[in-house]
Amino acid sequence: MLELTTTRHNHLIDPGVHVWGWEIPIYLFVGGLVAGMMVITGYLLLTGRFRGRESVARSLPLISLIVLSAGMLALFLDLEHKLYFWRLYTTFEITSPMSWGAWILLLVYPALVAAMLIRPPSILGLWDGIVKLSGRVAADDRSVRWIGTLNVVLGVMLGIYTGILLSAMGSRPLWNSALLGPLFLTSGLSGAAAFVHMIARDRSESDLLVRADNGLLVVELVIIGLFLIGMTSASEAHIRAAGLFLGGSYTSVFWVFVVGAGIIFPLVLQLLMVRHKIRHTVVAPLLVVAGGIALRFIIVYAGQASHM
Q: N or C terminus: fewer CB in 10 A for the chain?
């Protein structure tokens, strides 16, 4: 559970006292997914692709805002002292991952709103003031570049933070790895690319995201390999933690649902799509998204089972 202190105005994460349920894995997955969608949105803005008639840039910021709000609700439900969440914003502790995360999330919302104003979705086009403001912002290349860059930077920070949030806890050897940040960031980018591939109407954008996701899935496999190698090369506690995935109680679910069904199988399908051997299908991106969810649940639950 996430616990708010009334003295240091900060979150304290102590899974040794409370067992985490579904809320934290969902929050971590949503954070990574939104981080990936922000990077994609920023890319579309910086490359000018957002001007395409059917560009997904028109709907992506609004979807990101809705999904992120759902993740924040999951986090709120997990708070031990819900009435004191506002204390996070009365100070900034540079050594606290939760303090960094709180302020990053605070900046993410206006960045997404700014991106949404460039190409507002149809529902916002009903207000003349928004249409006029959108026209002025979209016509200013400097503003578009700034908003695009802001979305990319904050997206990367948000994605890495979801992993650092766990890796900062040295009492849990499975989480105590510097590779969790890059792993969760890559997984979030991959899940976002897969999700956007499913909803994109522009065929060129869809093809681009499939190719990007293939590269991200390969990188994710490499990071998982390095993560396990690092664990088995460290202390006895880390070796025991890695053993949870190498013959232990989490071996089957990890290798079947995360590595097999969530990475390797969709990678093979998408490589065949890129080479026009098979038609585009939602099966592969759905598996990638499901694999990203499974990764968070298994890492969180297995981490709580690992001890120094």
A: C
In the block, which residue shows the tokens 């496999």?
Answer: 221
Contact assessment for residue 302 and residue 244, using Cβ atoms and an 8 Å cutoff:
yes
The predicted structure's pLDDT at residue 84: 61
Give the pLDDT band (50/70/90) at residue 171: confident
Q: Which residues, other chains included, contact 140 with Cβ-Cβ below 8 Å and sequence gap of 6+?
A: none
Render the burial of 67-104: b for 16+ CB within 10 Å, e for the rest. bbeebbebbeebbeeeeebebbeeeeeeebbbbbbbeb
| For residues 30-50, average pLDDT | 95
CB-based contact 175:299 (threshold 8 Å): yes
pTM for the model stands at: 0.88
Is the pLDDT confidence value at 249 over 90? yes
Question: Cβ of 195: how many Cβ atoms within 10 Å?
Answer: 24
Q: Which helix (H) or strand (E) is 215 found in, with range?
A: helix 203-232
Per DSSP, the residues of 34-102 read HHHHHHHHHHHHHHTGGGSTT-GGGTHHHHHHHHHHHHHHHHHHHBSSGGGGGGGGG---TT-HHHHHH
Place of tokens 């894995």: 25
DSSP H helix total and E strand total for the chain = 11, 2
